[in-house]
Amino acid sequence: MTITDTPTTPAPAASRRLSTSKAMVEAIAQEMERDPSVIYLGEDVGAYGGIFSSTTGLLDRFGPDRILDTPISETAFIGLGIGAATEGLRPIVELMFADFLGVCFDQIYNHMAKIHFESGGNVKVPMVLTTAVGGGYSDGAQHSQCLWGTFAHLPGMKVVVPSNPADAKGLMTAAIRDDNPVVYLFHKGVMGLPWMAKNPRSIDVVPEGEYVVPIGKAALAREGKDVTVVTLSLSVHHALDVAEKLAGDGIDVEVLDLRSLVPLDREAILTSVAKTGRLVVVDEDYQSFGLSGEVVATVADRDPTLLKAPVQRVAVPDVPIPYAHVLEYAVLPRPERIEEAVRRVVGG
Amino acid sequence: MTEVPFPGLSTENPDSEGVVSTWFVGEGESVAADQLLAEVQVDKVAAEVLAPVAGVVRLLVEEEAVVKQGEPIAHID
What is the pTM of this model? Predict the structure, then answer.
């Protein structure tokens, strides 16, 4: 008998990839399966599946008692979520755009964020407030803001901002399980939506089953030795693109993805800056009185001698986001501005 | 070999064309049955395409390619 060995190379198994929006939905669905007290409510989150696909398919799976379409009355339904949370449910409440916080902010910062403190720790508000942020697609000054610095400024809320599919799943799971109110901000440009500008970094491998990313831990998105770029959300993608380009010029860029604003992983910032001695902060929120200043202050408070060069900040100058595409790109922290800042801080 | 067709999203117009927006798997990778292969769009309606069987996937069209409903977009061997 002759045995002919045919050398076969088995096809590599396709890693399970998801878009950021699908990863977010997977986390919500898994937590709803696990815990009957988890519900989701907001505008167009039912049959429509969320205007940025944050809840696609959940109504079919969990029904209208747990996936609730609300009227356009943010104060009323955020208040409803807070009440439900204090009475033992774990609601996820979607504010369609972060820009709309103006019509419901009393519920958010005076009630959701303060009830635990005001009750002397006796009442918990285990609620997640999800909201879409960010610009770059000509949606104008009232639909393009990030505003995470505003939530983070006010005490009593944790604030998380995933940049990729795996973190979107892991941070959502952590947010739902947290006994504190957590604001979960997702940038429309990282969701992997078929009708938005193509973004290959918004489709990636996502662990199956239970997956938790701890709130308050930054991630080293890229290791480097010459300069630290501290950033978050869609700007992580731009920073990684710039880092890959500059590697060709011998500039080794480290990219730190904050992932959480509250709590802020100050140790990760200091560790990286201690290594590189150079800092660029990239933030799609407004420049003044916000995250970028807080990151710089973190270094200045601890040890300003870590820095070998002045810090560069790449943020939205203090103007409303323009509608005109060219003007909008001029104020956003696009790759060109990030590259210029990195070159300046390395050359200086 | 199993053919994976572009799904019939428009019943009113069976000749409708759409695009493959996103491939979630790579050429020549082995996939499980029901694994997410692609997201496609006709007009503004999006749909997921799952693997009908397990096997090695061969992609027949690139992302953003325009395809008529019912035409094959992949093979699974």
Answer: 0.94
